[in-house]
Amino acid sequence: MKSLDDLKKIRDAAQSKVNMRGKNDGMRVLVGMATCGISAGARPVMNTFVEKIAENNIEKVTVTPVGCIGECAIEPIVEILEGDIRTTYCRVDVEAAERIVKEHIIGGKVVLDYVIGKYRL
Amino acid sequence: MNELSLHILDICQNSIKANADLIEITITENIDKNIFMIEITDNGHGMSKLTLSEVSDPFFTTRTTRKVGLGVSLFKMAAEMANGSCVLSSIVDIGTKVTAIFEHNHLDRAPLGAIEDSINILILNEREIEILYTHKYNNQIYIFDTREVKKVLDGIPFTDYNVIMWIKNNIKEGIKMIQEEESR
Ligand SMILES: Nc1ncnc2c1ncn2[C@@H]1O[C@H](COP(=O)(O)OP(=O)(O)OP(=O)(O)O)[C@@H](O)[C@H]1O
Ligand SMILES: [Mg+2]
Q1: Within 13 Å, how many C-alpha atoms sit on residue B63's CB side?
Q2: Fold designation for A4-114
Q3: Residue B124 is part of a domain; what is its CATH number?
């Protein structure tokens, strides 16, 4: 088991490369985490976003669980906010989450296959 | 929901909605007494007697009113399926406690599952909340406390990749260790 000493080492390593990121000054990824979302698989989806974003050292992107977005039938729902642009993805699974990280968050291109309304409902 | 840790994540969302900033999750596994117990205690705004009676009313599960949700009812159903029960107690402005008891070896008792994934999501909540996770397995005990972790982290965020991996490993291995220790 990794001990608190291991955590201290992680802290020291992280401190030496710290570039403070402002909390909300970038892209925000919101994952619906109410009962309907959790039942539909929001937990592995959120964890995929968190891990992929951290793993790729993508700065200024925060992933946050939020309450019911309202459309229980098409959960898991993920919203991406950049300034005043909002993209809503629905029926997101782990595979979709990986694509959204790669193509939208890193690549800057909306993944149309999962966008609500236009192509899926 | 096929893992108890998913129910726990869901029940904790109620605590977050109630503005709690400390959630205590306690799992008690007692093999001799055939008990698997989950206690979730928060310091949120609590519920009035009326709300409490409505939430606990099983007939409310069939309703589709907005006010009455599914989370508590589903958790209750999961407990009852494993020959157990789920009760809520609450005091306005003090907090709420949800206690669910299951028969440990019941075929319909869902496994705990990836509790480390649930805790990780709670930690990343926008409004910071502290989590005290205690897992008892017979006489062994494992404790994870975000306040303790924060003290060590000294400002390094929970979103750091290595920190995330450390937390998940610590919880997963910590639980495994107490179970192995006991069966020795
Ligand atoms: N920890 C708590 N503190 C305060 N109020 C609570 C708490 N847990 C439940 N409640 C009250 O009970 C109601 C029903 O909870 P329940 O989890 O069953 O449904 P919900 O949270 O409203 O919706 P859903 O869980 O389906 O997303 C809540 O809306 C809230 O008013
Ligand atoms: Mg709920």
Answers
A1: 12
A2: Glutaredoxin (3.40.30)
A3: 3.30.565.10
